[in-house]
Every structure is written in C-alpha cells, then in structure tokens.
C-alpha cells in the first residue's frame, strides 16, 4: 500500500511483479500476462528513452535472459509459497497467519528478482548518450508533473479510485465483500493520510540523483545506480520515512481486519484462488 518508488527501471519491475504475482483477475490471465511481460517492459522503457537499434537488441536480449531465469528459478518458489498459504487457510489457520511473516518472503522474492534484472539492464544504461539522458530526464519530469496535476485537479476522484482499487484487489482474493468489509475500506481511505505533494518531492530528489549519476559517471557509478534503485528509501528524510511506515502499518491493520471478518465462503474462495495461482506458476515454470 506504500507509494510507488520513482524511477524507470524500478517502476517497471515493481509494476510487472505486482501484475504477475498479486493482482491479476483470473488464473488464465496470469499465464497470458506473464508471457507478455518482456514485451510490456520494453514498451515501458521505450516510453522513457529513445534507444538505438543496437541498444534495442541488447534490451531484448537482457529481458529474454531475465524472463528465462525468472521462469525457471523463481516461479517454483512462488508456487510453493502460495500453496503453503492455501494449506493454512484450508486448515482453518487463517487467524494465525501473520501478515508480517507473509511479507518477508514476498520482499525476498522482490529483492532477488530486482537484483537480477538490474544487473542485466545497467550495462545498457552505461551506453546512453547525453541526448538520451536529457530526453529521459524530460520524460520523467513530464510523467511526474502529469500525475501531480491529475491529483490537483480532482483529489476526490483520486480518493474514489484508491477505494475502488482496494475493493477490487480484495474481491479478487475473497470474492464478494460484506457490508462490514466495504465500510472498513471506506474508513481506511478516509482516514489514512495521502499527500501526493510529499511523494512528488521524493520523486524529484530520486530522479535528480539518478540522472546526475548517469551524466557524471563517477567511479563505481553503476553500483551506485543499482543501490539507488534497490534502496530508494536511503534518500527519504526522517519525517517522510515515519509517514510511510505509519501508512504501511495502517494498511496491514486494514488487511488484518478484513481477514478477521471473512466468511467460510470467502475463505474457500481465497483457498481456491491461491491454489489456482500456484498451479499457473508451476505451469509457466515448466513451459
């Protein structure tokens, strides 16, 4: 539930991971979306930087390598993890499931895949010309300003969209929500602080550091870029860090409240959905 981390490569992988692992609508769409991820990621990168023909060839090779590695080595772990969760729910242990414990393996999956992807893509970043870096800087600024402008024009609409997103994500796992669960979501959205201006400030700081490293190319700058993308929180001031930690805790509490209020039918739906995801990931891993 935290704000997305700014930056081209980090944004691409984080969104791709969420799409593939968490927020797809159905079992069949998981396989379709996963098989299109490398193409989708190329489109995302093309949206920020104009690559030469040679660079595009390198990008395709890097993403193909990543996709093959991820399919063979990571998807079996995802399937095992989801199957274990399904067993716990089916055995009536949903109340004993600690979200903090669930988050840890997910964080490990994320970090492992991110490091592999960055190691494959950063050599390409080293080849970007000054003109390409300037173009990327402009695109990043335009995207950031566009996002902020949308919020400033219609903050109420953003609030409604946040509520809709949380409800939709919950329904994918649990099926139809009860009135109580709908009220929990509405209350959370109304109470939890959301300040796009602060997020935009952090995006500006991150993007400035990212572009500066690309331009200056100091000794060891690729390692610094990798660290910046893996640990964007290092640039957060203490007040922003505390705000994000508070939001994360509030999101966890909302999840715990919703899980505590589930019906038997919703728990059956959750078990079935987890097992369908696990089967899909095993099928993909064997392709």
Mind explaining what this structure looks like?
The structure is a single chain. The protein is built from twelve helices and no strands. Residues 1-28 have low confidence and may be disordered. The protein is globular, with a radius of gyration of 20 Å. The protein has helices at residues 8-21, 27-35, 37-46, 53-90, 99-125, 130-153, 155-174, 179-191, 196-216, 221-230, 238-260, 264-285. The protein starts with 7 loop residues before the first helix and ends with a helix. The chain has one domain (8-285). With 287 residues, the chain is mostly helical.
Number of helices: 12
Rounded to the nearest angstrom, the radius of gyration is 20 Å
Helix fraction by DSSP (H/I, runs of at least 4): over 70%
How many strands appear in the DSSP assignment? 0
Residue-averaged pLDDT, rounded? 84
Overall spatial form: globular
Distance between the termini: 32 Å
